[in-house]
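Hi R.,

Here's the chain you asked about this morning:
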Amino acid sequence: MIVLWFIRFFVFNLYESPKYLMGRGRDAEAIKVLEMVAAYNNSTNRLTLEQLQRTGVIAGTEGEAEKGGVVDTSVAAAIRRNLEHLKGEHVKSLFVTRKLALSTSLLIVLWAFIGLAFPLYNSFLTYFLQTRGADFGDGSVYITYRNVSPFAPQWEGFPVNKPLSTNSKSFCR
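And the predicted structure, written out as tokens:
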């Protein structure tokens, strides 16, 4: 494995992604990388720096580019640009009336409890049953879930054995 690591860094000449370079405002370096990749592949790069700059600035940065000509390409600035269009009107409409606000809040709380309870139940079921004195033989997770599952195998197989069921056509034929 160490040999492959060595080959990656010292044998292959890897370039920074042109997409990454353009996202950081380093267009000239991006064109240079494209030219090197094209030369490696015995081809030519037809894209020039002028053509690339004619396409415009990064979406949402027009004001920044007009102010100083330099676009803030940091991660924080990108996150800020992406979150500018979220004003909250679509969420405010869920709390317009008292009844709608109560209903929305109740749904949010219920889904939060479901999101917490379901993984906790499945994670701690075997421990809970063991501390309450349940004995399923060898105590494996498979045996425990097989014995307490509300969807026991006989109930899961019922639609398959039913002759007029659509499931019987898909599973048995």
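Residues 90-162 form one domain.

Let me know if you need anything else.
M.
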